[in-house]
Amino acid sequence: MSTARHRPAAARRSRFEGPGGAAWGRGHARAFAFAFARWRATPLASAATTAVLALALLLPLLLGLALHNAGRLAGTLEASRAISLFLAMDQDAAAAAALAERLRARPEVAAVSLRSPEQGLEEFRRMSDLADSLELLDGNPLPWVLVVTPHAEPAALAATLAAEPGVETVQYDAAWRARLDAWLAFASRALGLLAVLLAVGAVLVVGNTVRLDLAARHDEIALLQLLGADDADIRRPLLWLGLLHGAGAALLALAGAGLIGLLLAGPLAALAASYGGGFALHGPGLPGLSATLLAGALLGWLGARVATGHDLRSLRPADR
Q: Which of 2, 50, 236, 317 is the most exposed, fewest CB within 10 Å of its CB?
């Protein structure tokens, strides 16, 4: 009885798809053409759906780029920071050079540079607005300074160097690094949660659009089912429609991110130049572009799949 019941449906489906082994390809080509026609037939509704999806993609994209550039900036700052050893005032050039040689022999030290009191005073004179006041000093109040570049574990090395004979003060601020790492970790976790929430919203937006399209085509879908189309045949153009919405939204989000980057590039360059740096924004690159396009298309497809999976079951005839 079961075979007899399903044979008419199989025959109708064969007539609907047509003969030949390329029926799957023809079905997808026909579905894409139909979805593109539906997408162009309702420009305002399609633009509204695409814009909402683009905003849902743009916000995590911008935050991700900001977090990536903040990590680059943090890495630049950490690379430029070193451990400064201020020697006691009674330490002369020979003692400073001897200490520098001992430190260079340590495996955890990458490099050691010497700064004489004269070099320190000249640098302070160039960087300070009190250059004229320095002329009133009887002598040079600055000590010899050793700038140590560590290989790794700078905090532990700084504690060890503080015990070296002749070292008066060790300047190494590890607290700001810990705070910066904590903020970056928090921002990364918050970005992940926000991306999940916005992805759910994007799926619901596409699903609602597809659901409205299904409701408007109720009679057409019933006729297609009588001609032999099954749920996959009816679902296929709607999945392509969702994918088109998602891909279009991803392109729009990337264009928006690029425009915002161009608007911020000038002020950021001026800000970096005022601090003596050359930091510049980095875009998503080819991997980021590909990931954004894939994410947009996947969200559009998933929203359409969820909507059609539920609504087509309610439209399915009783004999199928």
A: 2
- CATH C-level class of 82-171: alpha beta
Contact present, 205 and 9 (Cβ < 8 Å): no
| Cα 144 to Cα 205: distance, rounded to the nearest angstrom | 66
In angstroms, the first-to-last Cα distance of the chain is 14
pTM equals 0.60
Sorted by sequence, the CB contacts under 8 Å of residue 69 that are 6+ apart come out as 281, 282
Contact 290, 239 (CB under 8 A): no
The CA-atom distances, in angstroms, between 157 and each of 96, 118, 182 are 18, 27, 22
With a CB cutoff of 8 Å and minimum separation 6, the contacts of 115 are: 123, 144, 145, 146, 147
Q: How many residues does the chain have?
A: 320
- The model's pLDDT over 15-34, given as tens digits with 9 standing for 90+, comes to 445 554 466 677 677 777 77
Q: Within 13 Å of residue 253, how many CA atoms lie on the same side as its CB?
A: 33
* Among candidate residues 79, 77, 81, the one with its CA nearest the CA of residue 172: 81
**Residues near 99 by beta carbon (within 8 Å), at least 6 away in sequence:** 85, 87, 91, 146, 164, 166, 167
